[in-house]
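Bumping my old thread because nobody answered last time. Still need a sequence for this structure:
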């Protein structure tokens, strides 16, 4: 059974509100201030993903990537249909909409930049997939090359490193 970190769960409530405040445009100087103060919420959600990714293996990373890919594709399909129905069904045919929207340039831009052509506000999911792919690549490379990873932490009783932290060597085999 998975242990729940109640501190993180409680912290998600105000930080989720911060994300909502980013997407709601308030006018004037107050709106500008709210936008600035709400931005750290984005960093928090990436940090939480990193926290829960610490010491997981490649199989777990693959599962997370597959779950996120499925979610992204399903939600993108819904937004694709919604965009056509709400904005284009009276202007162009569905075939013309698909041909102009789904092409190699759009898909390449989506893959390379993470900019979803159908739902731009879902960039976070694309960025998280890219982060997991990069993390998995680092794990794979360190295992393949049989290297030692150096982890810099701050603890008493260990040898201090040059930058003031403590170096513990972890052998990955």
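Sorry it took so long. Here it is:
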């Amino acid at each position: 059974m998975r242990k729940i970190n109640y501190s993180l769960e409680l912290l998600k409530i105000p930080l989720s509100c911060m994300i909502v405040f980013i997407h709601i445009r308030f006018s004037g100087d107050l709106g500008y201030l709210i936008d600035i103060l709400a931005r750290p919420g984005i960093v928090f959600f990436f940090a939480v993903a990193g926290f829960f990714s610490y010491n997981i293996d490649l199989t777990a990373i693959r599962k997370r990537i597959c779950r996120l890919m499925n979610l992204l594709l399903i939600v993108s399909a819904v937004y694709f249909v919604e965009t056509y129905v709400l904005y284009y069904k009276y202007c162009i045919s569905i075939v013309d909409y698909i041909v102009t929207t789904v092409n190699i340039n759009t898909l390449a831009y989506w893959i390379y930049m993470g900019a979803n052509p159908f739902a731009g506000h879902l960039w976070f999911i694309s960025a998280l997939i890219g982060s997991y792919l990069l993390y998995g690549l680092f794990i794979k490379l360190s295992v393949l090359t049989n290297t030692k990873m150096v982890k810099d932490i701050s603890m008493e009783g260990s040898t201090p490193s040059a930058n003031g932290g403590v170096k513990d060597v972890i052998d990955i085999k």
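The longest strand covers residues 148-153. Let me know if any region looks off to you.
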